Amino acid sequence: MRLTYYRDLILVLTQKEMQVRYKNTFLGYLWSVAQPLALAFVFFVAFKVVMRINVPNYTLFLITALFPWQWFSNSVTSANGVFIGNASIIKKINFPRYSLVIANICQDSIHFFLAIPALLIFMLYYRIWPHWSWFYGIPVLFVIQFITTFGLSLIVASLNLFFRDLERLTSIFVMLLFYCTPIIYPADMIPEKFRCFLNFNPVAPLMVNWRNLFLEGHMDVFYMLISLLYGLGFMSLGVFIYKKLSYRFAEVL
Amino acid sequence: MTKKSVILLENVSKTYPLYHHIQGGLKNFLLRLPKALKSTIETKFEALSNISLSIQQGETFGIIGKNGAGKSTMLGLMAGVLKPTSGRLMIDGRISPLLELGGGFHLELSGMENIMLNGVLLGMTRAEVKKRIGEIIEFSGLSDFIDQPIRTYSSGMLARLGFSVIVHLDPEIFLIDEILGVGDMSFQKKCLEKMMGFKTKGVTMVFVSHSISEIEKICDRVCWIENHCVKMIGSVSEVVPAYSATMND
């Protein structure tokens, strides 16, 4: 009974975010595919056409990691506004506030799933076939990415209410993280002496695994465990901070 | 028959720290560091101080007082949106709060979508909201506008929508913060009838209002709050005349 309620709560909040986001836009849901593709096009021009990076099937190489990355970065960046944007609800009704954060992540994950068909079209174009391992690989990586994003989003959303500068800091940090993660370049292009730092990047193992799964149909177990550990760590920290602060949300909004 | 108390406040205080020095930015904060630190620690705004009261099951309890006396903070505490700084607060039962016009609504969504959103936020499942949605729309009298975004609604229409959702929740404890004032006469009458119905069904109600006539009509007991403290608690016939007398000064 309670479980049905939480499911409904998150469902309705996610639906609300979707409806609000695309209200009054002409292309509507098409944007969830158009936006990541447009971004991929920009990187293609910059790195393939101009800088002539030597990676075969570069478009496919790029989007297999860029799409999951977009889900992560959009969720964490927009987490800053999750509680602020819902001030009128938080101040008037006592409901589990973290459900807003979950709904925000669900919404971005829907865009990620909507973009997978576009990825499939590119794969067919390059004659790379989907692999059976997707059936367990996608759910596993999905869960890991979900808890990582949830932890970081909870931290960002809660702290931003008390320290509004966090919004700027998050966007700088996310951009930095983007260029430190092998998304627009392969991991083996990183100079040997810096490569060990890759494991200190909490999302790099995850993004590398997404790409391996999509392109080659296998996952690196070591990377998977590292990303799972990061995910659990961020989630514990996020829940801890949220629990410490959530009772004061209605006061500071 | 002794009735159990469903809302109990024991020596409850609520203070807010005043954050203005931090909000002035880092430069101002650092330039006047000692003073700023001292004032952040010391300046507190006491919204409620040392409140004790108990509300029995089935009682209709009114709260009156001037603007800024602390009435809304008190309802916020009862609704569980705010936590007391000190003291003990006990609530026994499902709370249905109607704390402000348009609270719990999203302005871009239609009336219909907002009924679902609000209903779920208040603790119903989707199936339960769907079952009642016809009744809710009918009670609100807004069926012609139900597919319009509620940013186009007037304040009276918002009050209608909010009240209609909340009364169809089967409330056990019903909190209302002076919201009926904006509805038109016919809707106010409808609301009062609904509340009288709740009263006979034994629903506990806490009612903040500036309308003395409404308080007299439905409340059993009244609490008068002045300067963040309880000035007087008692039956309507005791408290209301005393309160009205100070208003005429």
Describe it for me?
The complex is a heterodimer of chains A (253) and B (249). Chain A is an all-alpha fold and 253 residues long. Chain A has one domain (2-252). Chain A has eleven helices and no strands. Chain A has helices at 2-22, 31-50, 58-79, 82-85, 87-90, 98-125, 134-160, 166-180, 204-216, 221-245, 249-252. In chain A, helix 2 (31-50) packs across helix 3 (58-79). The model of chain A has no long low-confidence stretch (mean pLDDT 92). By secondary structure, chain B is an alpha/beta fold. Chain B folds into two domains: 1-94 and 172-189 and 198-249, P-loop containing nucleotide triphosphate hydrolases (Rossmann fold), CATH 3.40.50; 102-170, Helicase, Ruva Protein, domain 3 (Orthogonal Bundle). Chain B has helices at residues 20-23, 26-31, 33-42, 71-79, 111-121, 126-140, 155-167, 185-201, 212-218, 236-247, and strands at residues 5-17, 44-56, 60-65, 86-91, 95-98, 173-177, 204-208, 221-226, 229-235. A six-stranded mixed β-sheet of chain B has the order 5-6-7-3-8-9, with helices on both faces. The longest helix of chain B has 17 residues, at 185-201. In chain B, 40% of the residues are buried. The model of chain B has no long low-confidence stretch (mean pLDDT 86). The chains are: A mainly alpha (253), B alpha/beta (249).
